[in-house]
Amino acid sequence: MNLHRKGRAALVLALVTVVAMAFRVSWNALRDIAGAIGADTTAATLYPFVVDGLMALALIATLVLAGRDRTFALRVLAAYTIASLVLNYVHGLVPELHGHSVDWGRLADWDPANWALVLLATSLPVGSIYFGSDLVAKVLHHRPAPIAAPTVNMEKSTNTEMNRSSSDLAVSTPAPITPNVTSLPRAVAVGFLKSNIPAKPVGAIEQPIERSTVAAESSRPRRATGRVPEVARTPRPKRSPDELLDEARKATADWPDARLTAEGIRREVRTSPANARTLRDTLRAERGLQVA
Which of 268, 263, 271 shows the shortest CA–CA distance to 292? Predict the structure, then answer.
């Protein structure tokens, strides 16, 4: 980490040095142009900061702003870069500008070209005031988009067990046993009742009375108890580890790293907690994250 930071610091320092030297070269040309359009010594010295300085300000604004404001900053950067390039090009074509021997307001021999160059050179300071103030105001009023906080799973383990899918249970839950209650016939009072059975004659042989037992019938259907047979179960598809991993990859492709939890994966692909933990570790390893 220290070597990485040192390398970045060295790269930034080298870039700043190159930009400073490039500004020094451009400063010489823009100073002579400012003197040719009537600026005094102090104004000619500050003129390069007006042009090239606004370029640096617009570049920083593009890194901060977004949307239409960023597009505006890029246009300002492009316009002032082209203007500085044109003025440096004119400085190289007119040797008299180097020795300050050119007449005031004379940057080209052809009058239309001279008028356009003088208009460009004199309008850049005014444009710097307008565009620079606008960029500073946009940067000060810019509000970055809020970062969505990661979702924290605060459910208890009891709720987790209740929400498990039926396809992940090893054994089906037996149905509750309901006792089969049969109502008994009301008791008949035995007392001083006159029997309607005819008297048995004397000497008759007593015949055995056949008794049949009738099972009591219940009007309520009896529910199945115990474990459901394998034949009566609804067939469920079994997925291989590769199929589970492919399904988890598709389901969590657009998930943030903080949401990549075993519980979230279990609910999404409807698998067991053990498989969900394995999928979580595999997906976190593929993203280069630390495996929990």
Answer: 263
Q: Terminal CA-to-CA distance of the chain, rounded, Å?
A: 23
Query: What residue ranges do the domains of the chain occupy?
Result: 2-140, 237-292
- pLDDT reading at 54 higher than 70: yes
pLDDT value at residue 85: 93
pLDDT band at 235 (very low <50, low <70, confident <90, very high): low
Q: How far apart are CA 266 and CA 274, in angstroms?
A: 9
CA distances in angstroms from 198 to 79, 188, 208, listed in the order given? 132, 21, 17
Q: 215 vs 51, 97, 136, 142, 178, CA distance in Å?
A: 109, 126, 97, 88, 19
Give the range among 31-45, 176-190, 230-244 with minimum mean pLDDT: 176-190
Residues 6+ apart with CB under 8 A from 273: 160, 164, 262, 263, 266
